[in-house]
């Protein structure tokens, strides 16, 4: 086991309750300096995000989120290939693991895809291709596109908070409108969707 693999295992260990910033920063450094760092890391994390252990899967997704903000363009390029994106699709799609995966894990996957297609397109167009396909098929829904912090709090708060969040979208017509906007290819509609997402996030946060 090389140093990068040791650090990745440590950062995603489901037994640990502590976030070690030194570890994740060292991971990012090794990814950017080792020739096969991005490919090796994504291959390992692609396996971990499909873990039946929810905590391990969420830890891996949160590590991916950090690395996507911290690492250089080579990592983003590998992240934006269907070789990796297909692993996220498997987690979300009922054709694969979607029915076996917890809502918190699926919501996190949906958020990451939403953020990546927003932040890295058009340089990495496959983010948008994967995201838009899942939206069109109804696999990613408006209720999943909320802030990472809100979803993390909801998962920690238990089922009552999750039920309250769901009630917002069931009774609020914003959800239907947001779904229509997210499926649009019109830039103006996407801008309206982002504004609507912000207002929905505020409603969700008020329940926590």
UniProtKB/TrEMBL annotation:
GO cellular-component term (any): early endosome
Subcellular location: Early endosome; Golgi apparatus, trans-Golgi network membrane
PROSITE patterns in the cross-refs: GAT, VHS
Family: Belongs to the GGA protein family.
SUPFAM superfamilies, per database record: ENTH/VHS domain, GAT-like domain
Domain of life: Eukaryota
Pfam families: GGA_N-GAT, VHS
GO process annotations (BP): Golgi to plasma membrane transport; intracellular protein transport; protein localization to cell surface
Domain VHS: 11-142
Record has Transport as a keyword: yes
Domain GAT as annotated: residue spans: 171-208
Protein name (record): VHS domain-containing protein
Membrane topology: Peripheral membrane protein
UniProt-listed InterPro entries: ENTH_VHS, GAT_dom, GGA1-3, GGA_N-GAT, VHS_dom
Listed GO MF terms: phosphatidylinositol binding; small GTPase binding; ubiquitin binding
Organism: Schistosoma curassoni
This protein's record includes keyword Transport: yes
Keyword terms, alphabetized: Protein transport, Transport, Ubl conjugation
Coiled-coil residue spans: none
């Amino acid at each position: 086991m090389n140093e990068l693999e040791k650090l990745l295992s440590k950062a995603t260990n489901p037994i640990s309750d502590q976030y070690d910033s030194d570890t994740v920063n060292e991971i990012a450094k090794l990814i950017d300096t080792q020739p096969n760092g991005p490919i090796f890391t994504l291959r390992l994390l692609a396996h971990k995000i499909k873990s039946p252990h929810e905590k391990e899967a969420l830890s891996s997704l949160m590590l991916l989120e950090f690395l996507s903000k911290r690492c250089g363009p080579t990592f983003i390029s590998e992240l934006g290939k269907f070789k990796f994106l297909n692993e996220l699709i498997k987690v979300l799609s009922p054709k694969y693991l979607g029915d076996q995966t917890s809502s918190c894990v699926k919501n996190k996957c949906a958020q990451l895809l939403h953020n990546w297609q927003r932040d890295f397109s058009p340089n990495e167009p496959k983010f948008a291709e994967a995201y838009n396909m899942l939206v069109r098929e109804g696999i990613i829904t408006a209720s999943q596109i909320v802030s990472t912090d809100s979803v993390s709090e909801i998962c920690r708060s238990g089922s009552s908070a999750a039920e309250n969040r769901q009630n917002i979208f069931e009774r609020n017509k914003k959800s239907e409108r947001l779904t229509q906007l997210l499926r649009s290819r019109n830039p103006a509609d996407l801008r309206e969707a982002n504004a609507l997402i912000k207002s929905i996030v505020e409603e969700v946060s008020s329940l926590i």
